[in-house]
């Protein structure tokens, strides 16, 4: 799942080398924190949050196949 988040975030970013994803595993939930260049935050979030919402939906579907929950956070 982490590779999926990294791949999508790098495709959206203008500075793909600065994308960092931290994965924190819990019992049933995995939290992914995406850190990026300040100029890329808007691109990852998208207009009205639609891009990050779509990414969260895809991530939730992938996590459901592994009987887990996933949370995605975008930080500078």
Number of helices: 3
The tally of domains stands at: 1
CATH class: Alpha Beta
| Strand order of the biggest β-sheet | 1-2-3
C-alpha geometry:
globular
What descriptors fit this protein?
single chain; 76 residues; alpha+beta; GMP Synthetase, Chain A, domain 3; three-stranded mixed β-sheet; 42% helix; 26% strand; globular
Structural summary, described in words:
- This protein is an alpha+beta fold and 76 residues long.
- It has one domain: K homology (KH) domain (GMP Synthetase, Chain A, domain 3, 2-Layer Sandwich), CATH 3.30.300.
- The protein is 42% helix and 26% strand.
- The protein is built from three helices and three strands.
- It has a three-stranded mixed beta sheet.
- The longest helix is centred in the C-terminal third of the chain and has 16 residues.
- 16% of the residues are buried.
Nutshell version of this structure?
With 76 residues, this protein is α+β, with helices and mostly antiparallel strands. It has helices at residues 2-12, 41-45, 50-65, and strands at 20-25, 29-35, 69-75. The protein has a single domain, classed as GMP Synthetase, Chain A, domain 3.
């Amino acid at each position: 799942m982490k590779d999926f988040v990294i791949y999508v975030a790098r495709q959206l970013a203008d500075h793909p080398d600065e994308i960092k994803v931290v994965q924190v595993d819990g019992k049933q939930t995995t939290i992914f924190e995406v850190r990026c260049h300040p100029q890329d935050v808007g691109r990852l979030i998208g207009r009205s949050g639609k891009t990050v919402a779509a990414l969260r939906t895809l991530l939730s579907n992938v996590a459901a196949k592994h009987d887990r929950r996933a949370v995605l956070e975008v930080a500078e």
